[in-house]
Design goal:
heterodimer, A: 293 residues, mainly alpha, MetI-like fold, two-stranded antiparallel ribbon, 74% helix, B: 280 residues, 14 helices, 0% strand, cell membrane (chain B)
Protein backbone atom coordinates (compact mmCIF):
# COMPACT_ATOMS: atom_id res chain seq x y z
CA UNK A 1 0.00 0.00 0.00
CA UNK A 2 2.70 2.44 0.91
CA UNK A 3 4.56 1.65 -2.25
CA UNK A 4 1.49 2.52 -4.27
CA UNK A 5 1.23 5.87 -2.57
CA UNK A 6 4.86 6.61 -3.27
CA UNK A 7 4.35 5.71 -6.91
CA UNK A 8 1.41 8.11 -7.02
CA UNK A 9 3.54 10.86 -5.50
CA UNK A 10 6.21 10.26 -8.07
CA UNK A 11 3.75 10.37 -10.94
CA UNK A 12 2.24 13.61 -9.71
CA UNK A 13 5.70 15.06 -9.25
CA UNK A 14 6.57 14.21 -12.84
CA UNK A 15 3.44 16.06 -13.94
CA UNK A 16 4.45 19.18 -12.07
CA UNK A 17 8.05 19.05 -13.25
CA UNK A 18 7.74 20.76 -16.67
CA UNK A 19 6.36 23.84 -14.93
CA UNK A 20 8.17 23.47 -11.63
CA UNK A 21 11.69 23.23 -13.06
CA UNK A 22 11.65 26.55 -14.96
CA UNK A 23 9.64 28.13 -12.15
CA UNK A 24 12.36 27.19 -9.69
CA UNK A 25 15.19 28.16 -11.98
CA UNK A 26 13.86 31.52 -13.14
CA UNK A 27 11.60 32.50 -10.27
CA UNK A 28 12.38 31.02 -6.86
CA UNK A 29 16.17 30.76 -7.09
CA UNK A 30 16.44 34.35 -8.36
CA UNK A 31 14.23 35.44 -5.49
CA UNK A 32 16.64 33.98 -2.94
CA UNK A 33 19.64 35.08 -4.97
CA UNK A 34 18.59 38.72 -5.05
CA UNK A 35 18.24 38.75 -1.26
CA UNK A 36 21.73 37.24 -0.98
CA UNK A 37 23.16 39.78 -3.42
CA UNK A 38 21.68 42.64 -1.47
CA UNK A 39 24.13 41.85 1.36
CA UNK A 40 27.11 41.91 -1.00
CA UNK A 41 29.24 44.44 -2.73
CA UNK A 42 29.90 43.45 -6.32
CA UNK A 43 30.44 45.10 -9.70
CA UNK A 44 29.61 42.21 -12.05
CA UNK A 45 33.22 41.87 -13.22
CA UNK A 46 35.35 40.98 -10.22
CA UNK A 47 35.44 37.30 -9.29
CA UNK A 48 34.73 37.92 -5.60
CA UNK A 49 31.77 39.37 -3.86
CA UNK A 50 32.34 41.21 -0.60
CA UNK A 51 29.93 40.64 2.27
CA UNK A 52 28.85 44.03 3.62
CA UNK A 53 25.84 43.10 5.73
CA UNK A 54 23.18 45.78 5.77
CA UNK A 55 25.40 48.48 4.31
CA UNK A 56 23.58 48.54 0.98
CA UNK A 57 20.30 49.19 2.75
CA UNK A 58 21.86 51.79 5.03
CA UNK A 59 23.30 53.57 2.03
CA UNK A 60 20.04 53.26 0.13
CA UNK A 61 17.97 54.76 2.91
CA UNK A 62 20.34 57.73 3.10
CA UNK A 63 20.33 58.29 -0.63
CA UNK A 64 18.17 61.24 -1.75
CA UNK A 65 17.77 59.61 -5.19
CA UNK A 66 16.00 56.72 -3.47
CA UNK A 67 13.46 59.03 -1.83
CA UNK A 68 12.98 60.91 -5.06
CA UNK A 69 12.21 57.69 -6.93
CA UNK A 70 9.97 56.55 -4.09
CA UNK A 71 7.97 59.75 -4.52
CA UNK A 72 7.87 59.31 -8.29
CA UNK A 73 6.67 55.72 -7.85
CA UNK A 74 3.95 56.84 -5.48
CA UNK A 75 2.75 59.55 -7.87
CA UNK A 76 2.99 57.16 -10.76
CA UNK A 77 0.82 54.60 -8.95
CA UNK A 78 -1.81 57.13 -7.90
CA UNK A 79 -1.72 58.98 -11.19
CA UNK A 80 -2.14 55.89 -13.32
CA UNK A 81 -4.37 53.61 -11.25
CA UNK A 82 -7.03 56.10 -10.14
CA UNK A 83 -7.63 57.77 -13.54
CA UNK A 84 -7.50 54.46 -15.46
CA UNK A 85 -10.07 52.90 -13.19
CA UNK A 86 -12.33 55.94 -13.00
CA UNK A 87 -12.24 56.36 -16.74
CA UNK A 88 -12.76 52.64 -17.24
CA UNK A 89 -15.79 52.67 -14.97
CA UNK A 90 -17.27 55.76 -16.63
CA UNK A 91 -16.85 54.27 -20.09
CA UNK A 92 -18.32 50.97 -18.97
CA UNK A 93 -21.35 52.75 -17.50
CA UNK A 94 -21.84 54.71 -20.72
CA UNK A 95 -21.40 51.58 -22.78
CA UNK A 96 -23.56 49.45 -20.50
CA UNK A 97 -26.77 49.15 -22.50
CA UNK A 98 -25.38 49.54 -26.01
CA UNK A 99 -26.10 46.91 -28.62
CA UNK A 100 -24.30 46.55 -31.94
CA UNK A 101 -22.97 50.10 -32.01
CA UNK A 102 -21.42 49.45 -28.62
CA UNK A 103 -19.12 46.81 -30.07
CA UNK A 104 -17.37 49.36 -32.29
CA UNK A 105 -16.81 51.76 -29.38
CA UNK A 106 -15.56 48.89 -27.27
CA UNK A 107 -13.09 47.79 -29.94
CA UNK A 108 -11.70 51.28 -30.36
CA UNK A 109 -11.25 51.79 -26.63
CA UNK A 110 -9.71 48.41 -25.95
CA UNK A 111 -7.25 48.46 -28.86
CA UNK A 112 -4.50 50.47 -27.07
CA UNK A 113 -4.10 47.73 -24.48
CA UNK A 114 -3.31 45.05 -27.06
CA UNK A 115 -0.63 46.96 -28.95
CA UNK A 116 3.11 46.84 -28.14
CA UNK A 117 4.03 49.46 -25.55
CA UNK A 118 7.30 50.29 -27.27
CA UNK A 119 5.65 51.06 -30.60
CA UNK A 120 2.86 53.18 -29.14
CA UNK A 121 5.34 54.97 -26.86
CA UNK A 122 7.24 56.02 -29.97
CA UNK A 123 4.00 57.42 -31.39
CA UNK A 124 3.42 59.31 -28.15
CA UNK A 125 6.94 60.70 -28.12
CA UNK A 126 6.13 62.22 -31.51
CA UNK A 127 2.82 63.56 -30.17
CA UNK A 128 4.75 65.21 -27.31
CA UNK A 129 7.36 66.73 -29.62
CA UNK A 130 7.60 70.31 -28.25
CA UNK A 131 7.98 72.19 -31.58
CA UNK A 132 5.43 70.62 -33.90
CA UNK A 133 3.82 67.85 -31.84
CA UNK A 134 0.11 67.21 -31.70
CA UNK A 135 -0.15 67.83 -27.94
CA UNK A 136 1.18 71.37 -28.14
CA UNK A 137 -0.82 72.24 -31.24
CA UNK A 138 -3.97 71.14 -29.40
CA UNK A 139 -2.99 73.41 -26.51
CA UNK A 140 -2.46 76.26 -28.95
CA UNK A 141 -5.83 75.57 -30.49
CA UNK A 142 -7.57 76.31 -27.19
CA UNK A 143 -5.39 79.33 -26.61
CA UNK A 144 -2.79 77.90 -24.25
CA UNK A 145 0.97 77.99 -24.57
CA UNK A 146 2.74 74.74 -25.39
CA UNK A 147 4.84 73.07 -22.74
CA UNK A 148 8.08 71.11 -22.91
CA UNK A 149 6.35 67.80 -22.08
CA UNK A 150 8.97 65.08 -21.85
CA UNK A 151 11.85 67.55 -21.78
CA UNK A 152 10.48 69.53 -18.83
CA UNK A 153 10.89 68.03 -15.32
CA UNK A 154 7.54 69.53 -14.29
CA UNK A 155 5.60 67.94 -17.13
CA UNK A 156 7.42 64.74 -18.02
CA UNK A 157 5.70 62.55 -15.45
CA UNK A 158 2.30 63.84 -16.54
CA UNK A 159 3.23 63.02 -20.11
CA UNK A 160 4.11 59.43 -19.24
CA UNK A 161 0.97 59.14 -17.12
CA UNK A 162 -1.38 60.33 -19.86
CA UNK A 163 0.02 57.71 -22.20
CA UNK A 164 -0.23 55.02 -19.50
CA UNK A 165 -3.85 55.88 -18.72
CA UNK A 166 -4.65 55.90 -22.44
CA UNK A 167 -3.27 52.39 -22.68
CA UNK A 168 -4.96 50.84 -19.64
CA UNK A 169 -8.34 52.59 -19.34
CA UNK A 170 -9.91 50.33 -21.97
CA UNK A 171 -8.69 47.28 -20.12
CA UNK A 172 -10.35 48.42 -16.88
CA UNK A 173 -13.45 49.21 -18.90
CA UNK A 174 -13.80 45.62 -20.11
CA UNK A 175 -13.64 44.29 -16.56
CA UNK A 176 -16.24 46.77 -15.38
CA UNK A 177 -18.43 46.08 -18.39
CA UNK A 178 -18.67 42.43 -17.43
CA UNK A 179 -19.18 43.22 -13.77
CA UNK A 180 -21.99 45.65 -14.55
CA UNK A 181 -23.73 43.12 -16.80
CA UNK A 182 -23.69 40.68 -13.91
CA UNK A 183 -25.59 43.02 -11.59
CA UNK A 184 -28.98 41.30 -11.14
CA UNK A 185 -31.68 43.22 -13.00
CA UNK A 186 -34.30 42.58 -10.29
CA UNK A 187 -32.24 44.53 -7.75
CA UNK A 188 -32.20 47.56 -10.03
CA UNK A 189 -35.92 47.17 -10.70
CA UNK A 190 -36.59 47.01 -6.99
CA UNK A 191 -34.66 50.26 -6.61
CA UNK A 192 -36.74 51.74 -9.42
CA UNK A 193 -39.90 50.83 -7.55
CA UNK A 194 -38.54 52.56 -4.48
CA UNK A 195 -38.22 55.69 -6.61
CA UNK A 196 -34.42 55.78 -6.65
CA UNK A 197 -32.81 58.00 -9.29
CA UNK A 198 -29.86 57.03 -11.51
CA UNK A 199 -27.21 58.27 -9.11
CA UNK A 200 -28.82 56.62 -6.12
CA UNK A 201 -29.14 53.29 -7.98
CA UNK A 202 -25.49 53.46 -8.98
CA UNK A 203 -24.38 54.45 -5.50
CA UNK A 204 -26.30 51.86 -3.50
CA UNK A 205 -26.79 48.95 -5.91
CA UNK A 206 -24.22 48.87 -8.72
CA UNK A 207 -21.15 50.17 -6.89
CA UNK A 208 -21.30 47.71 -3.98
CA UNK A 209 -22.02 44.81 -6.32
CA UNK A 210 -19.04 45.52 -8.55
CA UNK A 211 -16.66 46.04 -5.62
CA UNK A 212 -14.88 42.68 -6.14
CA UNK A 213 -13.88 43.91 -9.61
CA UNK A 214 -12.68 47.21 -8.18
CA UNK A 215 -10.64 45.36 -5.61
CA UNK A 216 -9.11 43.06 -8.22
CA UNK A 217 -8.27 45.97 -10.52
CA UNK A 218 -6.65 48.00 -7.75
CA UNK A 219 -4.21 45.21 -6.92
CA UNK A 220 -3.42 44.21 -10.50
CA UNK A 221 -3.02 47.80 -11.63
CA UNK A 222 -0.87 48.77 -8.66
CA UNK A 223 1.52 45.89 -9.24
CA UNK A 224 1.62 46.73 -12.95
CA UNK A 225 2.32 50.39 -12.15
CA UNK A 226 5.22 49.47 -9.90
CA UNK A 227 6.67 47.33 -12.67
CA UNK A 228 6.29 49.89 -15.45
CA UNK A 229 9.38 50.05 -17.58
CA UNK A 230 8.73 50.14 -21.34
CA UNK A 231 7.14 53.56 -21.75
CA UNK A 232 9.54 55.20 -19.30
CA UNK A 233 12.46 53.73 -21.21
CA UNK A 234 11.18 55.01 -24.56
CA UNK A 235 9.72 58.35 -23.51
CA UNK A 236 12.08 59.74 -20.87
CA UNK A 237 14.59 57.16 -19.65
CA UNK A 238 13.85 58.28 -16.12
CA UNK A 239 14.71 61.91 -16.83
CA UNK A 240 14.73 64.84 -17.03
CA UNK A 241 16.68 65.10 -13.76
CA UNK A 242 15.06 62.00 -12.31
CA UNK A 243 11.52 63.33 -12.57
CA UNK A 244 10.22 60.06 -14.06
CA UNK A 245 12.67 57.65 -12.42
CA UNK A 246 10.59 55.11 -10.54
CA UNK A 247 12.05 52.62 -8.07
CA UNK A 248 12.10 50.00 -10.80
CA UNK A 249 13.96 52.32 -13.12
CA UNK A 250 16.44 53.17 -10.37
CA UNK A 251 16.98 49.45 -9.85
CA UNK A 252 17.59 48.91 -13.52
CA UNK A 253 19.98 51.84 -13.79
CA UNK A 254 22.08 50.91 -10.80
CA UNK A 255 22.29 47.31 -11.99
CA UNK A 256 22.92 47.67 -15.71
CA UNK A 257 24.35 51.17 -16.04
CA UNK A 258 26.42 51.68 -12.89
CA UNK A 259 26.94 47.96 -12.13
CA UNK A 260 26.28 48.41 -8.41
CA UNK A 261 24.84 44.95 -8.05
CA UNK A 262 24.51 44.99 -4.26
CA UNK A 263 22.82 48.34 -4.17
CA UNK A 264 20.53 47.42 -7.05
CA UNK A 265 19.56 44.22 -5.28
CA UNK A 266 18.62 46.12 -2.15
CA UNK A 267 16.27 48.23 -4.30
CA UNK A 268 14.80 45.02 -5.75
CA UNK A 269 14.20 43.59 -2.29
CA UNK A 270 12.50 46.85 -1.31
CA UNK A 271 10.25 46.58 -4.38
CA UNK A 272 9.37 42.96 -3.57
CA UNK A 273 8.51 43.80 0.04
CA UNK A 274 6.60 46.86 -1.12
CA UNK A 275 4.46 44.77 -3.46
CA UNK A 276 3.92 42.16 -0.76
CA UNK A 277 2.86 44.82 1.76
CA UNK A 278 0.54 46.44 -0.77
CA UNK A 279 -1.11 43.13 -1.59
CA UNK A 280 -1.56 42.46 2.11
CA UNK A 281 -3.05 45.89 2.81
CA UNK A 282 -5.34 45.60 -0.20
CA UNK A 283 -6.35 42.14 0.89
CA UNK A 284 -7.24 43.27 4.41
CA UNK A 285 -9.03 46.37 3.18
CA UNK A 286 -10.82 44.16 0.67
CA UNK A 287 -12.07 41.82 3.36
CA UNK A 288 -13.73 44.71 5.14
CA UNK A 289 -15.27 46.55 2.24
CA UNK A 290 -15.66 44.15 -0.66
CA UNK A 291 -19.09 42.69 -1.08
CA UNK A 292 -19.14 39.14 -2.40
CA UNK A 293 -22.42 37.58 -3.36
CA UNK B 1 -39.84 61.76 -19.30
CA UNK B 2 -39.44 60.62 -22.97
CA UNK B 3 -37.67 63.92 -23.67
CA UNK B 4 -35.31 63.09 -20.91
CA UNK B 5 -34.72 59.65 -22.38
CA UNK B 6 -33.88 60.98 -25.83
CA UNK B 7 -31.59 63.62 -24.38
CA UNK B 8 -29.69 61.04 -22.36
CA UNK B 9 -29.40 58.75 -25.34
CA UNK B 10 -27.90 61.45 -27.54
CA UNK B 11 -25.60 62.67 -24.80
CA UNK B 12 -24.41 59.16 -24.17
CA UNK B 13 -23.63 58.57 -27.85
CA UNK B 14 -21.80 61.86 -28.13
CA UNK B 15 -19.67 61.10 -25.10
CA UNK B 16 -18.93 57.59 -26.31
CA UNK B 17 -18.03 58.75 -29.80
CA UNK B 18 -15.76 61.44 -28.41
CA UNK B 19 -14.02 58.96 -26.11
CA UNK B 20 -13.62 56.39 -28.88
CA UNK B 21 -12.14 58.97 -31.25
CA UNK B 22 -9.69 60.19 -28.63
CA UNK B 23 -8.61 56.64 -27.87
CA UNK B 24 -8.15 55.75 -31.53
CA UNK B 25 -6.61 59.04 -32.57
CA UNK B 26 -2.98 58.13 -31.81
CA UNK B 27 -3.33 55.24 -34.28
CA UNK B 28 -4.73 57.57 -36.93
CA UNK B 29 -1.94 60.01 -36.20
CA UNK B 30 0.61 57.24 -36.52
CA UNK B 31 -0.53 56.24 -39.99
CA UNK B 32 -0.87 59.82 -41.20
CA UNK B 33 2.59 60.74 -39.91
CA UNK B 34 4.00 57.66 -41.61
CA UNK B 35 2.63 58.89 -44.94
CA UNK B 36 4.05 62.40 -44.75
CA UNK B 37 7.24 63.73 -46.25
CA UNK B 38 9.97 64.88 -43.92
CA UNK B 39 9.11 68.52 -44.67
CA UNK B 40 5.42 67.97 -44.06
CA UNK B 41 5.94 66.30 -40.73
CA UNK B 42 7.82 69.35 -39.43
CA UNK B 43 5.06 71.80 -40.39
CA UNK B 44 3.34 73.75 -37.67
CA UNK B 45 0.48 73.55 -37.07
CA UNK B 46 0.54 69.91 -38.20
CA UNK B 47 -1.70 68.91 -41.11
CA UNK B 48 -4.36 66.32 -40.33
CA UNK B 49 -3.41 64.32 -43.43
CA UNK B 50 -0.59 64.45 -46.00
CA UNK B 51 -0.97 66.14 -49.38
CA UNK B 52 -0.02 63.03 -51.26
CA UNK B 53 0.35 59.88 -49.17
CA UNK B 54 3.91 58.63 -49.43
CA UNK B 55 3.39 54.86 -49.36
CA UNK B 56 7.03 54.30 -50.19
CA UNK B 57 7.87 55.25 -46.58
CA UNK B 58 6.71 51.81 -45.55
CA UNK B 59 8.99 50.10 -48.05
CA UNK B 60 11.92 52.32 -47.11
CA UNK B 61 11.43 51.68 -43.41
CA UNK B 62 11.09 47.93 -43.94
CA UNK B 63 14.40 47.90 -45.79
CA UNK B 64 16.22 50.29 -43.45
CA UNK B 65 16.58 47.67 -40.71
CA UNK B 66 16.21 43.87 -40.55
CA UNK B 67 12.53 44.06 -39.62
CA UNK B 68 11.70 40.78 -41.31
CA UNK B 69 14.21 39.10 -38.99
CA UNK B 70 12.82 40.90 -35.92
CA UNK B 71 9.29 39.93 -36.84
CA UNK B 72 10.29 36.32 -37.39
CA UNK B 73 12.09 36.28 -34.01
CA UNK B 74 9.05 37.65 -32.20
CA UNK B 75 6.60 35.26 -33.82
CA UNK B 76 8.90 32.25 -33.45
CA UNK B 77 9.74 32.93 -29.80
CA UNK B 78 6.15 33.82 -28.85
CA UNK B 79 4.82 30.77 -30.70
CA UNK B 80 7.27 28.38 -29.02
CA UNK B 81 6.44 29.80 -25.62
CA UNK B 82 2.73 29.30 -26.27
CA UNK B 83 3.26 25.62 -27.14
CA UNK B 84 5.39 24.97 -24.04
CA UNK B 85 3.00 26.82 -21.75
CA UNK B 86 0.01 24.88 -23.02
CA UNK B 87 1.84 21.66 -22.12
CA UNK B 88 3.32 22.58 -18.77
CA UNK B 89 0.32 24.55 -17.52
CA UNK B 90 -1.98 21.71 -18.51
CA UNK B 91 0.14 19.11 -16.70
CA UNK B 92 0.65 21.23 -13.60
CA UNK B 93 -3.02 22.13 -13.40
CA UNK B 94 -3.97 18.47 -13.83
CA UNK B 95 -1.72 17.45 -10.96
CA UNK B 96 -3.12 20.21 -8.75
CA UNK B 97 -6.76 19.42 -9.47
CA UNK B 98 -7.13 15.72 -10.29
CA UNK B 99 -4.21 13.90 -8.68
CA UNK B 100 -3.59 13.13 -5.05
CA UNK B 101 -0.10 13.65 -3.69
CA UNK B 102 1.76 14.85 -0.66
CA UNK B 103 2.86 18.49 -0.65
CA UNK B 104 -0.03 19.43 -2.95
CA UNK B 105 -1.00 22.23 -0.56
CA UNK B 106 2.58 23.45 -0.39
CA UNK B 107 2.83 23.42 -4.16
CA UNK B 108 -0.33 25.49 -4.53
CA UNK B 109 1.02 27.92 -1.92
CA UNK B 110 4.30 28.25 -3.78
CA UNK B 111 2.54 29.13 -7.00
CA UNK B 112 0.38 31.66 -5.18
CA UNK B 113 3.50 33.32 -3.84
CA UNK B 114 4.98 33.28 -7.32
CA UNK B 115 1.88 35.16 -8.46
CA UNK B 116 2.65 38.00 -6.06
CA UNK B 117 6.35 38.48 -6.79
CA UNK B 118 6.86 41.28 -9.28
CA UNK B 119 8.67 39.60 -12.17
CA UNK B 120 10.73 42.65 -13.05
CA UNK B 121 12.27 42.69 -9.57
CA UNK B 122 14.10 39.42 -10.23
CA UNK B 123 15.45 40.37 -13.66
CA UNK B 124 18.94 41.05 -12.30
CA UNK B 125 19.46 37.67 -10.59
CA UNK B 126 17.64 36.03 -13.50
CA UNK B 127 20.14 37.59 -15.87
CA UNK B 128 23.10 36.33 -13.81
CA UNK B 129 21.65 32.81 -13.66
CA UNK B 130 20.96 32.79 -17.39
CA UNK B 131 24.57 33.85 -17.92
CA UNK B 132 25.84 30.97 -15.80
CA UNK B 133 23.74 28.58 -17.88
CA UNK B 134 25.35 29.99 -21.05
CA UNK B 135 21.90 30.94 -22.29
CA UNK B 136 22.36 34.66 -22.82
CA UNK B 137 22.03 35.68 -26.45
CA UNK B 138 20.21 32.58 -27.64
CA UNK B 139 16.74 31.53 -28.71
CA UNK B 140 16.95 28.89 -25.98
CA UNK B 141 17.35 31.55 -23.31
CA UNK B 142 14.56 33.71 -24.71
CA UNK B 143 12.17 30.77 -24.80
CA UNK B 144 13.14 28.86 -21.66
CA UNK B 145 13.19 31.85 -19.35
CA UNK B 146 9.60 32.70 -20.35
CA UNK B 147 8.27 29.20 -20.73
CA UNK B 148 6.29 29.10 -17.51
CA UNK B 149 3.62 31.49 -16.35
CA UNK B 150 1.87 31.43 -13.03
CA UNK B 151 -1.06 33.19 -14.62
CA UNK B 152 -1.45 30.42 -17.21
CA UNK B 153 -1.33 27.73 -14.54
CA UNK B 154 -4.04 29.53 -12.58
CA UNK B 155 -6.19 29.96 -15.64
CA UNK B 156 -6.10 26.25 -16.49
CA UNK B 157 -6.39 25.16 -12.88
CA UNK B 158 -9.58 27.20 -12.65
CA UNK B 159 -10.95 25.52 -15.78
CA UNK B 160 -10.04 22.02 -14.56
CA UNK B 161 -11.73 22.63 -11.22
CA UNK B 162 -15.02 22.97 -13.09
CA UNK B 163 -14.63 19.55 -14.69
CA UNK B 164 -16.40 16.78 -12.80
CA UNK B 165 -13.87 14.49 -11.14
CA UNK B 166 -16.03 11.48 -11.98
CA UNK B 167 -15.03 11.84 -15.62
CA UNK B 168 -11.40 11.42 -14.59
CA UNK B 169 -12.25 8.44 -12.41
CA UNK B 170 -14.23 6.85 -15.23
CA UNK B 171 -11.18 7.20 -17.43
CA UNK B 172 -9.00 5.58 -14.77
CA UNK B 173 -11.36 2.62 -14.45
CA UNK B 174 -11.11 2.17 -18.21
CA UNK B 175 -7.38 1.91 -17.67
CA UNK B 176 -6.42 5.18 -19.33
CA UNK B 177 -3.17 6.75 -18.18
CA UNK B 178 -3.13 10.22 -16.63
CA UNK B 179 -1.58 11.60 -19.81
CA UNK B 180 -4.38 10.15 -21.87
CA UNK B 181 -7.07 11.46 -19.54
CA UNK B 182 -5.50 14.92 -19.57
CA UNK B 183 -5.21 15.26 -23.34
CA UNK B 184 -8.29 13.36 -24.51
CA UNK B 185 -10.82 14.24 -21.82
CA UNK B 186 -9.86 17.41 -19.96
CA UNK B 187 -8.24 19.51 -22.65
CA UNK B 188 -11.09 19.15 -25.17
CA UNK B 189 -13.58 20.07 -22.45
CA UNK B 190 -11.69 23.22 -21.51
CA UNK B 191 -10.44 24.23 -24.94
CA UNK B 192 -11.72 27.78 -24.65
CA UNK B 193 -9.45 28.36 -21.65
CA UNK B 194 -6.52 26.99 -23.61
CA UNK B 195 -7.39 29.26 -26.52
CA UNK B 196 -7.38 32.20 -24.13
CA UNK B 197 -4.05 31.12 -22.70
CA UNK B 198 -2.54 30.85 -26.18
CA UNK B 199 -3.84 34.22 -27.27
CA UNK B 200 -2.90 36.17 -24.15
CA UNK B 201 0.53 34.56 -23.96
CA UNK B 202 1.19 35.24 -27.63
CA UNK B 203 0.24 38.91 -27.29
CA UNK B 204 2.32 39.31 -24.13
CA UNK B 205 5.37 37.68 -25.61
CA UNK B 206 5.14 39.46 -28.94
CA UNK B 207 5.01 42.74 -27.03
CA UNK B 208 7.70 41.73 -24.55
CA UNK B 209 10.55 44.21 -24.44
CA UNK B 210 12.41 44.69 -21.16
CA UNK B 211 13.56 41.15 -20.43
CA UNK B 212 14.38 40.07 -24.02
CA UNK B 213 16.32 43.29 -24.48
CA UNK B 214 18.35 42.58 -21.35
CA UNK B 215 19.31 39.06 -22.32
CA UNK B 216 20.11 39.56 -26.00
CA UNK B 217 22.90 41.72 -27.35
CA UNK B 218 23.07 40.12 -30.79
CA UNK B 219 20.94 42.20 -33.21
CA UNK B 220 19.97 39.06 -35.12
CA UNK B 221 18.15 37.80 -32.04
CA UNK B 222 16.27 40.95 -31.18
CA UNK B 223 12.52 40.82 -30.91
CA UNK B 224 10.45 43.35 -32.79
CA UNK B 225 10.08 45.85 -29.92
CA UNK B 226 13.81 45.96 -29.21
CA UNK B 227 14.55 46.16 -32.93
CA UNK B 228 12.12 49.00 -33.35
CA UNK B 229 13.69 50.76 -30.41
CA UNK B 230 17.20 50.56 -31.91
CA UNK B 231 15.84 51.92 -35.17
CA UNK B 232 14.17 54.73 -33.23
CA UNK B 233 17.33 55.61 -31.32
CA UNK B 234 19.56 55.52 -34.39
CA UNK B 235 17.25 57.42 -36.72
CA UNK B 236 15.10 59.40 -34.40
CA UNK B 237 17.31 60.94 -31.77
CA UNK B 238 17.74 64.04 -33.91
CA UNK B 239 14.39 63.79 -35.59
CA UNK B 240 15.84 62.99 -38.98
CA UNK B 241 13.61 60.15 -40.05
CA UNK B 242 10.33 60.55 -38.21
CA UNK B 243 8.10 59.41 -41.09
CA UNK B 244 10.14 56.21 -41.40
CA UNK B 245 10.02 55.65 -37.65
CA UNK B 246 6.27 56.07 -37.74
CA UNK B 247 6.02 53.63 -40.63
CA UNK B 248 8.11 51.09 -38.72
CA UNK B 249 5.93 51.53 -35.61
CA UNK B 250 2.88 51.01 -37.80
CA UNK B 251 3.98 47.65 -39.11
CA UNK B 252 5.02 46.57 -35.63
CA UNK B 253 1.54 47.32 -34.34
CA UNK B 254 -0.39 46.07 -37.39
CA UNK B 255 -0.11 42.28 -36.82
CA UNK B 256 -1.42 42.65 -33.29
CA UNK B 257 -4.27 44.94 -34.25
CA UNK B 258 -5.32 42.44 -36.90
CA UNK B 259 -5.03 39.55 -34.45
CA UNK B 260 -7.06 41.56 -31.98
CA UNK B 261 -9.81 42.34 -34.46
CA UNK B 262 -10.06 38.68 -35.46
CA UNK B 263 -10.14 37.34 -31.91
CA UNK B 264 -11.88 40.15 -30.03
CA UNK B 265 -14.62 37.96 -28.64
CA UNK B 266 -12.13 35.50 -27.23
CA UNK B 267 -10.00 38.24 -25.68
CA UNK B 268 -13.00 39.76 -23.97
CA UNK B 269 -14.08 36.34 -22.82
CA UNK B 270 -10.59 35.94 -21.38
CA UNK B 271 -11.28 38.89 -19.13
CA UNK B 272 -14.23 36.96 -17.79
CA UNK B 273 -11.96 34.02 -17.06
CA UNK B 274 -9.25 36.21 -15.57
CA UNK B 275 -11.70 37.85 -13.24
CA UNK B 276 -12.92 34.38 -12.32
CA UNK B 277 -9.49 32.93 -11.67
CA UNK B 278 -8.64 35.83 -9.40
CA UNK B 279 -11.34 34.81 -7.00
CA UNK B 280 -10.32 31.28 -6.32
Amino acid sequence: MKRFKLAGDLKAFLFTLPALAPLTLFWFIPLGYVVYLSFMEWDFMSPDKLFVGLDNYRYLFQNPAFYQSLRVTLWFCLGSVIPSMTLGLLLALLLGGQGKGGALYRTMMFAPWVTPTVAVSIVWSWIYEPEVGLANSMLNLIGLDGVGWLKDPNWALLGVLIMTVWKSAGWCMIFYLIAIRNVPADLLEAADLDGANRWRKFRSVTLPLISPTTFFLVIVQLIAAIQTYDQINILTQGGPSGSTRTLLYLYYQSAFTSFQIGEASSVAVTIIFGCGALSLIAFMAGRKTVHYH
Amino acid sequence: MPYNRVFFKILRHLLLAAAAIIMAFPFYWLVMSALKTNDEIWQFPPALWPDTPLWSNFVDAWQAAPFAQYLFNSIFVAGSIVVIQVINSGMMAYALTHMKFRLKGAMTMMILIGYMVPATAVYLPGYIILGKLQLLDSYGGLILSNCVSVFSIFLIRQAFLQVNHELVEAGQIDGASHMRILWTILVPLTRSSFAVLALITFIDQYNNYFWPMLITRNPDLQLISAGLRSFFVEGGAYGLKWPLIMAASAFTIAPLLVLFLLTQKLIIQSVNLTAGSSKG
